[in-house]
Amino acid sequence: MILTDTHTHLYSEAFDEDRDEVIKKAIELGVERFFIPAIDSTYTKAMFELEKAYPENIFLMIGLHPTHVKENYKDELQHVEKLLNDRRFYALGEIGIDLYWDKTFFKEQQEAFRFQIRLAKKHKLPIVIHCRESFDEIFEILEIEKGEGLFGIFHCFTGSLEQARKAISYNLKLGIGGVATFKNGKIDTFLNEIELEHIVLETDSPYLSPVPYRGKRNESAYLVKVLEKLSEIYGLEEKEIADITTKNSKDLFGI
Ligand code: NI
């Protein structure tokens, strides 16, 4: 059984003390493929080091995270564009709109999101979307950019069944993680109405730990808790869910 964590910030400072153990522990549990979303240029070096240490397991994305769209966003976007021309990445991510933390740069967030969607299309790459209190704003842009060349993951999906169907209509898979295990997470109540071909697994570690680790540092190894929950929701063997969601990740990322 091979599990794929499609969203893990393994380069985060939260893992500086024990990164190798964290990775080893995950691999021992079958979590062998780690897709690494970018945040901004300050993490690029750490991401490259991670890839160098685990070339068989680590797959990098590049992008500017919406909460890091600030005064210097144009320089950051240039950094993304340049790196895309230099070497291979597996997605543009994470990109999107976040109106929870700060609305100051809303216009710039919209601009950065569209710019990066177009880069993804140009390089024939998937996008990995971060959405927080911004479903309508994200859908508004996807409505303009939809069609051939637009595909990817709606990361950390927390919306309604209707919003799930809408995301899928834009050729996006739903990134399902710890929230599916939360008592008040809601998505567990309708997820079985969404076919598994539209689902990929993720932790978003070090954030959003699944039950029973909620509130603690999250790790890719805890993906097995998400798997357990999905097995319960869909009434299928864990292995079957692992196989399908890993296949989905391969179809999407091309590896
Ligand atoms: Ni993330």
How are the secondary structure elements laid out?
Blueprint: E1 3-5, H1 19-28, E2 31-36, H2 44-53, E3 58-60, H3 73-86, E4 92-98, H4 106-122, E5 127-132, H5 135-145, E6 152-154, H6 161-169, E7 172-176, E8 199-201, H7 223-234, H8 238-253
Parallel strand pairs: 1-2, 2-3, 4-5, 5-6, 6-7, 7-8
The structure holds nickel (II) ion.
Q: Characterize the overall form.
A: globular
Largest sheet: 5 strands, parallel
In the CATH scheme, what's the topology name?
TIM Barrel
Q: First CA to last CA: what distance?
A: 17 Å
Number of strand segments = 8
Q: Which CATH architecture?
A: Alpha-Beta Barrel
Number of helices: 8
Oligomer: single chain
Per DSSP, what share of the residues sits in E-state strands of 2 or more residues? 5-15%
Bound molecules: nickel (II) ion
Helix content: 25-40%
Order of helices and strands: EHEHEHEHEHEHEEHH
Structural class: alpha/beta
Summary of the model, kept short:
With 255 residues, the protein is of the alpha/beta class.
Summarize the structure in words.
The chain has about 260 residues and is of the alpha/beta class. The chain is about 40% helix and about 15% strand. The chain is built from 8 helices and 8 strands. It has helices at about 20-30, 45-55, 75-85, 105-120, 135-145, 160-170, 225-235, 240-255, and strands at about 5, 30-35, 60, 90-100, 125-130, 150-155, 170-175, 200. It has a 5-stranded parallel β-sheet, with helices on both faces. Strands 1-2-3 form a 3-stranded parallel β-sheet, sandwiched between helices. Helix 6 (about 160-170) links the parallel strand 6 (about 150-155) and strand 7. Nickel (II) ion binds near residues 7, 9, 94 and 204. Nickel (II) ion binds near residues 7, 9 and 94.
